[in-house]
Amino acid sequence: CSSLAIGTTTGYRLFSLSSVEQLDQVHKSNEIPDVYIVERLFSSSLVVVVSHAKPQQMNVYHFKKGTEICNYSYSSNILSIRLNRQRLVVCLEESIYIHNIKDMKLLKTILDTPPNTTGLCALSINHANSYLAYPGSATSGEIALYDGNTLKTACTIPAHDGPLAALTFNSTGSKLASASEKGTVIRVFSIPGGQKLYEFRRGMKRYVNISSLVFSMDSQFLCASSNTETVHIFKLEHLTDSRPEEPPTWSGYMGKMFQAATNYLPAQVSGMMNQDRAFATVRLNISGQRNICALSTIQKLPRLLVTTSDGHLYIYNLDPQDGGECVLIKKHSLLDSGKLEENKENDLQPPLPQSYAATVARQSTVPSTSTMPGYSEDGGALRGEVIPEHEFATGPVCLDDENEFPPVSI
Q: Going by C-beta distance under 8 Å and a sequence separation of 6 or more, which residues neighbour residue 23?
């Protein structure tokens, strides 16, 4: 949650989210129009782009050097792309492709997945356990959990009665949150076991389409936004265990009795008793627009970020102690703010014609179906285009220098 990538009718833009008052544009590209997918590998120079002009083709760029690393074409339109330092996942309507990100080789194809028209899937950003979650059914809220490292199915989670609408992992990949198309209940499960840990009720009055579901980096909060004007933030309180050393009280005794009683009630009833209301909320001044949220720390304070499809970024203060209504502190326009930093060292210098990335870029202009010119270990080592260890889980490999972003902490 330290940078923002947006696709536009003219290309794509990358912004840094290090300041509240100022929105710094890191990169702007107008080479490919009508970009509807743009995914950046954390704060590195690797960016994956898909456009409406070629919706079946994924282009992978090193944007600081202005080179195309490779491209890859698929049998149908690309609906979503997820990536971490170990894996790159491409989701089509009825299949999923898993690539090894250090050399872009195709490792696994999951065929005949249930129809997934929105490309719903989630990948753990923690490469040590690259779990992948996607709908296991088109008619019910079943989650298929797949281990992207071992390339094996981990488990199936019966999460909701109705079809899924949102999925997200926490930063360590130990929790998975989900919401159904009804949008009334959000559940959190342990990973990889799939046990239900929390259940939050977003509302009962009306069904909504939850478009964004995200954990804070410390996994203490979970944010949900929808096509309504209200954004909900839930707090993942630690489940309190009974402590023998505590003096027995009447309220404590009744609490235990009540908890025991719920075990004998029907699931629909006992589930209702475990609901928690939102810890904090935001009322947007817009409704009906798709938006994406993030919980981040900017200038040492917790913030809620909301990006809307009309091209605006809203930054709110979040009170981590008392919650309540979040206060809007800044609104940015994403379509006319930020200046391209053209004077950074080596950013826009043309690559050497004999460089490996340039060679790959020339090769990749040949139409491809299921073959992909990636950068090999040998080629990368010879031309200095491999990715260093701090940026990827294993293997040589690096995009830029050691200071591009901090090493991964597990």
A: 15, 16, 17, 313, 332, 334, 337, 338
